[in-house]
Design goal:
four-stranded antiparallel β-sheet; 2 domains; alpha+beta; elongated; 26% helix; disordered N terminus; 7 helices; Hypothetical Protein Tm1070, Chain: A
Amino acid sequence: MVRVAFLFCVFAFSCFGFDLHSNIKSIISGQSYAKNRDKIEQIFAIESDFIDSRGNPNYAKITNTLRVNSLLNLSFSLPVNLEIAFYSPSSDILMFKSVSEALKNLGYSYFLSKSLKTDTQGIVWQISMNSRFLLDPGAIYRELGKNQIYIKDINRDGEFSFTYSIDASKAVLSTHQYISDSEFDLAKPLEPYFLNISGKSEALIKSYASDSWICVIKVLDRDLNLITQIKSDKPEKEIYIKFPPNSYYMLIDDAFSLENIKRGLKIYIKSN
């Protein structure tokens, strides 16, 4: 509880005043910052250059500037045990899914989820990993930004321990693109189909005659809370679903294997 309250204060501060040099110190370590302080102050003299168009710290530019000036080293000769906490006052499920996907896209597939704590002030998800490489703040900044999720502050809690305070209040997850009010094809899936159905009223989903789709359809709200679902215990050739109020995403899967829809699906989604 104390840690969550502390992180909430960190996030609240970062919303009103970004401390560039505190973040640089967290990224490169206090020892390295003290050793190169004069050089850093000269390079980062115009702090506004390191704020993005949305008013958030531009960690991609910050880390790149540190790197080209030989001030950033993200690798070690031997693996170390990294501990990273992600804090957000927004939806726990949405933040968890977004950060998990970002880490996966960056090649961090093997990490241990240590704890997931939520209360009225937000969520703290703590992970650990054994790696020769620190998490690149610029890379995770770019990856989260694709879903309109922004890093507000980075705090170094120990030599290999970090806390990322993030804002997921305007997050929109990456989804399959389609044209509504017209039937379209979904190609053979490598993972469950995930579609944005905001502003839509209903859908008709068809499988191919030679496939055996045991359907699982989940309708979620913007924060990824389940609103309704359809599950079948036999092959389906056609499923109609009317979207309840507040529907935002739809996940389409197979109860046993995506091989059951290896030819894809045909779908018609109607606008409101």
